[in-house]
Amino acid sequence: MNIRTILFSLGLLAASAAGAYLYFTGDRFVSTDNAYLKFDKVTISSEVSGTITSIPVLENQQVEQGDVLVVVDAAAYEAAVQKARARLQKAESYIQSQLANYRTKQAELALASSNLEFARGEYQRELNLSQKKLTSQALLDERKHTLDVASENRIIIEKELAQLLASLNGRVDAPPGEYAEVKEAQADLDLAIIDLRRTKIVAPFNGFVSHL
Q1: Distance CA 89, CA 36 (A)
Q2: pLDDT by residue (tens digit) across 163-173?
Q3: Pair 105, 162: CB distance under 8 Å
């Protein structure tokens, strides 16, 4: 069954009924048992598409605000919520992983900087000895190679650290929920939950079901 319009009547029932009784039972008017009172009507329809699984109200039934009027099949919307929740968890895990990688790279950079300084000192000492003819050219070349490797290693780690920082939007001290990936996933989850709630069409205020 596809979703159709629900007309929902509202009015001051007690006041209208009492007024109608006095009005129609007066001496100048003929009374009737099948008269209808006219109320304002509000059209209520679903904000999501799907198959109706139940309509727990009847024609002319009195309902109160929050009462369920129509239930739409929620299976697809429940699945969407689960998918969005999994995506949020994945986004949070990604950010936490990137933060951990950043801290690891910081430690690697500190070690690389220390190794570079040591290699630079070793090369300088070997160079001084070479100038005094107290060491071989082969040993000097080895110290130079070690220095070059240490320098290149530090450059590589600095680039990797910069890439990690960029993936974290330049922030490494914010809670996971403040990063773009997590915000986007949270927004998708919020929308999925809203759609799931909309599978139950409820009365927005007190009244009567006037037409199904």
Answers
A1: 57
A2: 999 999 898 98
A3: no
